[in-house]
UniProtKB/TrEMBL annotation:
GO terms for cellular component: DNA-directed RNA polymerase complex. This is Putative dna-directed rna polymerase. Keywords: DNA-directed RNA polymerase, Signal, Transcription. Residues 359-379 are annotated as: Disordered. The lineage of its organism: Eukaryota, Fungi, Dikarya, Ascomycota, Pezizomycotina. It comes from Diplodia seriata. The keyword Membrane does not apply.
Length: 401
């Protein structure tokens, strides 16, 4: 029979899991007074931006200059083991389901944290990882909308989406750069039709040129479900970009570019190596990923070099060859075997070597469980031989006595 203390702790955990999800802290979101920390409704009825009364009320305008570092931060402690996030924008000041969303930054794993489980049960907790992003050079000037989307690693298959008003300056008077950006990734709406695999970090199929990998283990490059073709198109809306409104100075007083935040050191892969993603129904293959590698300086401060533009993929049919940490490859998103105990995911002609999980092997682009039957048989034969040898020595000893 459970004690009262155990029941109380269980009840507290349930309350925390229900009431302490995550919300966007910076940039300041729309509708701050009515924004809840829950995910989008599974039906997608409140997509985009958690539709509700007062959804586009502006308490503070976020002023951003193109090319300047901005801060992405959160409140809440129910971080669900992290996951993958994107920062996207639409030129619509009050987005609808027809709005076209374009990705300006992708975070693979470790968002909002790489910690297992939840950080805290406090909805005001602000200790989750802070990230940096920029509005790309050449983006149109004016007022429009930024969105933070999150696909949690552990728990119900959900999609979180908070939106914020932004005023962009120092950019262009056209949509040329905006139009070339990839569409925002959408899944888990509803989860029964198309979901991100549980306990995995989603590798976005088209993350854009600004990408950082905050956690490199448990990567998924496929979605599960028969309805992914329609669900993943929601980010494109009606397929037409709007026009950014001229800056009006609404709810002025917001600071300019956010103060840059030190990027945490890259997470260490979980013990046992990286688990390569397996095939799933309704597969959705990754086509492009540019990783930002965090290095440690002599003084111990983490520095993050800028992501370099994607390089052309190697010609089809070119055999994989190794050069330093990069193994050349020809098919983006494919698994490349690097020896029998390592692998990489092809990214624009380069596969970075990663360790396989214990008990698995890589052969001909396929990750599979290592055949241990022969090992067990050999081990059994050796043990049997050792037992016979001990028995023989014992018999000889008795006869000599």
């Amino acid at each position: 029979m459970f004690s009262q203390s155990v029941l109380a702790a269980t009840a507290l955990a349930l309350v925390s899991s229900c009431n302490a999800h995550m919300i966007l802290s910076s940039p300041v979101p729309y509708g701050l007074d009515s924004l809840t920390n829950s995910p989008l409704d599974n039906s997608g009825s409140d997509f985009p931006c958690k539709q509700r009364s007062g959804v586009y009320d502006i308490s503070e305008m976020n002023n951003m200059k193109v090319g300047e570092s901005q801060t992405l931060s959160f409140k809440g402690g129910a971080t669900h083991g992290g996951g993958s996030c994107q920062v996207s924008v639409t030129l619509d000041a009050k987005p609808t389901k027809d709005s076209q969303w374009k990705v300006i930054h992708s975070i693979i794993g470790g968002c909002p944290t790489s910690e297992a489980g939840n950080l805290s049960g406090d909805s005001s907790y602000d200790g989750a990882t802070k990230f940096n992003y920029t509005v790309p050079e050449g983006m149109p000037n004016g007022e429009y909308t930024l969105a933070w989307t999150w696909f949690n690693k552990i728990g119900n298959r959900e999609m979180y989406m908070n939106c914020a008003p932004i005023t962009v300056s120092g950019g262009a008077d056209n949509n040329d750069v905006y139009d070339k950006l990839p569409d925002m990734f959408v899944a888990n709406l509803p989860r029964e039709s198309c979901e991100v695999p549980d306990s995995m970090n989603m590798v976005f199929p088209n993350p854009g040129d600004s990408v950082e990998t905050a956690e490199s283990s448990a990567l998924a490059t496929s979605l599960q479900g028969s309805g992914c073709a329609s669900v993943t198109k929601l980010g494109a809306g009606a397929g037409k970009a709007g026009t950014a409104a001229e800056a009006t100075g609404a709810a002025s007083g917001a600071a300019g570019a956010s103060t840059p935040v030190s990027t945490p050191a890259a997470s260490t892969p979980a013990a046992g190596g990286v688990f390569a993603p397996g095939a799933a129904s309704g597969s959705y293959t990754a086509t492009s990923m540019v990783s930002v590698v965090v290095t440690q300086s002599a003084a111990g401060a983490a520095t993050t070099p800028a992501a370099s533009p994607a390089t052309p993929a190697a010609a089809a049919g070119t055999p994989a060859s190794s050069s330093g940490d990069c193994t050349s490859c020809s098919s983006n998103g494919s698994v490349v075997c690097i020896g029998s105990d390592s692998f990489g995911i092809c990214n624009n002609g380069c596969a970075v070597k990663q360790s396989l999980a214990s008990g698995t092997t890589c052969s001909n682009g396929t990750i599979s469980k290592r055949d241990t039957s022969k090992v067990h048989k050999d081990s059994h034969r050796k043990a049997h031989a050792r037992a016979l040898a001990r028995a023989a020595r014992s018999l000889i000893h008795k006869q000599s006595v």
